[in-house]
Design goal:
Jelly Rolls; nine-stranded antiparallel beta sheet; 577 residues; alpha+beta; 22% helix; six-stranded antiparallel beta sheet; serine/threonine-protein kinase; Phosphorylase Kinase, domain 1; Transferase(Phosphotransferase), domain 1; 9 helices
């Protein structure tokens, strides 16, 4: 079983509806969805949920600089509402930012918040913002979350426009799979809004507030799977159309026209991917809408996730090609080479050359005949020498004692393979060998950051060296390096976190676009073998590719009863494009 990651992940409160006032201490009528101190713009209908009345208990009166458990120093209050407050804090023991929810121990929801936080922490799924601590101490109950400063809220992404088809596909695929895994463990979210979804710098979507935000707000549901499925459908609808699929405006998005009902996404915005639009309608069919092709409505995230996985894969868009500027022909001008003459300098005038008059005298005629005779003699001598040389070579070849014919390009010392120069990678991501969850995708960029002191390191696995023999990981994992454009790859250098890892290096064929399956890397650069900490290989012939996969098949023992591996740095050599 893999250990739970405690990497820093952003979490601010997303537990309510109305925008925050300018003063974070001022209470509002309900909670607020916050990302980097910014409130959400409107409510999300609670079709299947029931909201417990606001508790009369006041939020704890704390201030910046207050410490919890002599460890968590409160720095900024992002919201104070409905008897609880949310803070950005600093974990002084591990020197990292965290998020903290605070409420009095006698708050009517304190017990349910503690129970929800501890249940969420046991899930340990990296697709969710992790609960790091849940404590009752000194008449206070506080829940500590991870904090990721480089993540972007879906609300901010949609403010810039609808997502393109591949990005919307990634959103619904990752969110539905994550919620299906949560419901298999008996956990529901009940507050899946655009501000509850974060997109990391590596392109992975993370969900914050699992179970906890509903407990803070006192929201329950008799059909939690149906409620979360409809919420995922609303997120997909908003991603495709930049419109909120209800009549009320919310989260910076305009709602649908009043009295019309739910409209298919391709009727709201032209160019919407038909398959994704039908998925959104089937998920939102819980509210009475009918899917365009009459398929049954989704009632659980598991059904939605399976349908998304079965649909044809949507490829990312090809990178835009910028044509080079047209070549400007220059005209040669004597003395200036096409450059304008400095101010005040006279312009060079073309010089007319008058040929000398022909030789007409007796002496001139003698000279002409003499020059002609010399030219004839020179041509005859040159022709004779050329013929003699060719005949000599022919005779030498026919009378050779060895009887061997020289081969073109032959050399007793063949030229060694070219090592190439380092190529600058554009992006790195973690491959999901089984098409399921990835191994620490947020750490993939560390494998190409130019520093061997940090990198992508796997969790600790027990019982099996092939990634714990977990479903979807028993064939290993690895890092995909995107070179940005097709290059002629001649070699690769690796700095591994530990010796003894069994790995191979593969490449996608020329013309491949966004490969993320092992079968899509058909060019083998190195054979599968156990490597030392420093691994280097130079190819006999350059390989044309854009995507290179370092595939780790087996992990070495970490000396603590488990198995762990990773890659600190990847350097790909080549001849450029």
């Amino acid at each position: 079983m893999a250990e739970r990651s405690t990497a820093a992940v952003d979490v601010a409160d997303n537990s309510g509806d109305e925008p925050l006032a300018a003063d974070a201490v001022k209470a509002t009528a309900d909670g607020a969805d916050i990302q980097d101190g910014r409130a959400a713009d409107g409510p999300m209908p609670e079709k299947d949920g029931e909201r417990i009345g606001a508790a009369p208990a006041a939020a704890p009166e704390l201030h910046s600089g207050h410490k919890l458990a002599r460890r968590y120093r409160l720095e900024e209050c992002v919201t104070r509402v409905d008897g609880f407050s949310s803070w950005r804090a600093m974990d002084e023991k591990l020197r990292r930012a965290v998020g903290v929810h605070l409420l009095p121990a006698d708050h009517p929801r304190a017990r349910s918040v503690l129970a929800a936080a501890r249940s969420s922490a046991l899930l340990g799924d990296p697709r969710f913002v992790q609960v790091l601590d849940a404590v009752e101490e000194n008449d206070l109950v506080y829940v500590v979350h991870e904090w990721l400063p480089d993540a972007t809220e879906l609300t901010a992404l949609l403010a810039a426009g609808p997502l393109e088809a591949h990005e919307a596909y990634q959103l619904v695929s990752q969110i539905s799979q994550a919620m299906a895994a949560a419901h298999r463990e008996g956990l529901a979210h009940l507050r899946l809004t655009p501000s509850a979804i974060l997109r990391t710098s590596s392109g992975q979507y993370r969900i914050r507030g699992l179970a906890v935000n509903a407990a803070l707000r006192g929201i329950t549901s008799e059909t939690p799977q149906r409620a979360d499925t409809e919420a995922v459908g609303a997120l997909l609808y908003a991603a495709l159309t930049q419109r909120w699929p209800y009549e009320n405006d919310a989260y910076g998005l305009t709602g649908l026209p009043k009295g019309v009902g739910l409209i298919a996404p391709d009727q709201v915005r032209a160019g919407v991917h038909r398959g994704l639009g039908e998925l959104a309608m089937r998920a939102l069919a819980n509210d009475g809408a009918t899917a365009s092709r009459q398929e049954p409505a989704f009632t659980t995230p598991e059904e939605l996730a399976k349908t998304v996985a079965a649909m044809p894969r949507i490829r990312p868009p090809e990178p835009a090609f910028t044509a080079p500027p047209e070549y400007q022909h220059t005209t040669y001008q004597q003395g200036s080479y096409g450059r304008p003459a400095p101010a005040g300098m006279p312009t060079t005038q073309p010089v007319t050359v008058v040929p000398p008059p022909p030789l007409q005298s007796r002496t001139g005629k003698v000279l002409k005949w003499g020059v002609a005779a010399l030219l004839i003699a020179a041509l005859g001598l040159g022709s004779w020498q050329l013929a003699d040389t060719l005949l000599g070579r022919t005779n030498q070849g026919s009378s050779s004692d060895t009887g061997q014919t020289p081969q073109p390009g032959g050399d007793d010392n063949p030229k060694p393979p070219e090592a190439g120069k380092p190529l600058k990678p554009a992006h790195a991501s973690v491959i999901a060998i089984g098409g399921e969850d990835q191994v620490k995708p947020e750490d993939a960029p560390r494998a190409i950051d130019g520093s061997a002191g940090s990198g992508w390191v796997t969790p600790q696995y027990f019982g099996h060296s092939n990634f714990g023999n977990l479903p979807g990981r028993k064939d290993g994992s690895g890092i995909i390096v995107d070179l940005g454009s097709e290059q002629n790859v001649t070699g690769i250098d690796l700095k591994l976190s530990a010796a003894g890892q069994k790995l191979q290096v593969l490449a996608a064929p020329a013309g491949a676009s966004g490969p993320d399956l092992l079968s899509e890397f058909s060019q083998r650069l190195t054979k599968a073998d156990t490597a030392k900490k420093d691994f280097s290989a130079t190819l006999d012939q350059p390989v044309r590719t854009r995507y290179v996969l370092v595939h780790i098949i087996d992990l070495p023992s970490d000396g603590e009863g488990g198995y762990r591996g990773g890659i600190n740095e990847i350097q790909i050599r080549g001849q450029g494009s």
